[in-house]
Each structure stands twice: as C-alpha cells, then as structure tokens.
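Dear colleague,

Thank you for sharing your sequence with our group. We've completed the structure prediction you requested, and as agreed, I am returning the results in plain text so they can be pasted directly into your records. Please verify that the sequence below matches your submission; if there's any discrepancy, let me know and we will rerun it promptly.
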Amino acid sequence: MQILSGIYLHIPFCKQACSYCDFYFSTSLANKDVVIKSMVKEIEESQNYLPEKNIKSIYFGGGSPSLLSNVDLSLLFKSLSNYYTWDLETEITLEANPDDVTTEKLKVWKEAGINRLSIGLQSFNNEELKWMNRAHSAEESLRSVKLAQEMGFHNITIDLIYGSKFQTLKSWDETLEIAIGLGTQHISAYNLTIEAKTVLGSGYYKGSEPSVDEELSKELFDLMVNRLTEAGFVHYEISNFGKPGFLAKHNSNYWLQEAYLGLGPSAHSYNYESRQWNLRNNNLYVKALEQGDVYFEREELALRDRYNEYVLTRLRTLWGCDLLEIEKKFGPELSDHFRARAHSQKKLLDEKDGIYTLNHAGKFLADGIASNFFFL
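Please find the predicted structure tokens below.
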C-alpha cells in the first residue's frame, strides 16, 4: 500500500483547554491572522521539501481547525495550489469540534474542498465532557454528526477516549453502541494518558485525580475491538477502525513511513532521510518567518533510526513488519536482528510469509513490544 506525500497543517488555536490535551495551542485568537499569514510564508519556504508534488492527503489538525474562517481556508488552499497538485481522490480532512459544526460552516468546508471530517466527540457523558473541559455537550455531539451527514459528508471519523474514571465496561459498551449507531465510516479511540503539563496531569500529581487503571483499560480495549469488528470495521491500527474503503489515507501515510510536510507552529515533517519539527510557540514561529530565520529543528536519520521508526509504526498496523522489506531497506544485519527478537516475542506475534503482525494479546502492548525490537 503506497500513500505518497501528505501535508499536515497545524492550526494552533482552541476556544478552551481540554484537561487532558498536551498538543500545542493558544486559547487567544488575537494573532490568528498573523499565524495564518506566516503559514502561507512557510508554504513558500518549504516548497522543495517533499519529493512528490502530487499530494494524496491534506489534513487540517490542531488545535481546532474548525475555528478557521472561509477567508483563512481560501488563503491556505490558494497558497498550497501554487506548489502542489491534488485531485478528487485526494483525502482532505478537517478536524472539527461538535459545537463548531453548523450548516453555514459545513457549506464553507464543502466549497473549500474538504471531503472528510474528523469530529472530536470524545464522550457521550455530559459529566465526563465537563471534566474534560470540552466546549460541547453529548447532545451537540449527536447533532453535529447527523448534520454533517445531512449536508453531504460521507466520509466522517469520530474520536473517542476510554479509560477515564467515569467509565465501566457497561458504560463503554453503551458508548460504542451509540458510536456504531451514528453510521460513520471511521472511529478512532484512544486510551487516556496523563500528561504532565496538563490540568489532568496537575491533578494527578497533587493526588486529586486517580491514575489510569491499566487492567480496566485492557478490558475496555478488548471490548472495543470485538464490538467494532463485529460492526464491520477494519482494525487497521491500534487506535483506528475504518469501514472497508475508508481507512484514513493521511494517518496511514505516517504508519507506512511515507513523506509528509507539517506546516504551522509545532508541526512535524518527514522526508525519508530526516525529520524536523517547527517552533512550538506562535510568536517565535511568526518572528522567525518574518525575519528569515530558521523556524524548525532538524534531525538527520541514521539507518538504525529509520529501522526503529519502521518497527515502531508498522507493528501498530495490520500491514505489520515484512522481513524481506526490512532486509531491502536496512540490510541483513537488521533483518537478522529483527528475526531473533521476533522469535523471543512469538507469543505476541503472528507470522505469515515473513510478515509479522501483533496478535490480539499483543495489540494492547504495542509500544512496549516494539521497543524490544529496537537496534540501539
């Protein structure tokens, strides 16, 4: 499966800070126009970064891209079109908060060329949503998806979070039932993690918030896999489920180590040989681009770095790690290394024709298993 080049645009603005989120964003929209203009400048500056100019995916993430105006979107799309081409098959995704989904905005998004929505529902429990400091209610979640469908969006993914102190197997089963009933083409569900520099992290370290129950999280994960696969979803990455024909092209781009360009503060880029990440500060990012200074840090990837990333990302997917591909890309020493480690992890792996994938028991432990394959 080859996805080829993708472009990610990080829109670093939100109405308010979710208690669990450690992505880079600002709750002040005062300099939004300036940041957008700087992103236009970055599009020009980075025009030679990608080896492929025909783009297979464009993704507006954040932050809250649903805060963008039609003028903002038009400016960004026009700037991209100066250097890249795309067609009707290109997946163009915009992340949206349920409270931002209106008839007027849906019309703007369709006219701009957005053909896939990622709606951050997170939960259908109003008490839990309040604890997360989300700006929407459970009722708005349901309304937003139905409205998008009525307005002609037929490629919709929703985000859910599991593992919070509010959840039980029963409540999670009810959440999955509602999610399946919405009839979306894709569902992403993430195990709650407690990040240090968040409101939730602060509460945890002060003792006012509990840790995530790993045993319960595994039970919730198992329930989710069973329910969603029974409902016809393909479990193609640890946290991602898509109906056939609707596996996310953009995210698959990351997991299959295809090149992508990240635009905007804190955005990451990868072009096979190196990885780079932009300044994680709106003002510093704007200033650097205005003055012609370097606005990113870059790391040249050694052979073993690229091998380690291959294992880390590919083991998370249904495509798995291909021993012949490892030897072709990284040489016999690393393929022998992988084969030896695979033998020691065989209870958590399936193998067919030299392709290794995680079995059901291994999927919940993906990152830890992958680290056992690293060449250090």
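Summary note from our side: The CA atoms of residues 22 and 116 lie 24 Å apart.

Kind regards,
the structure core
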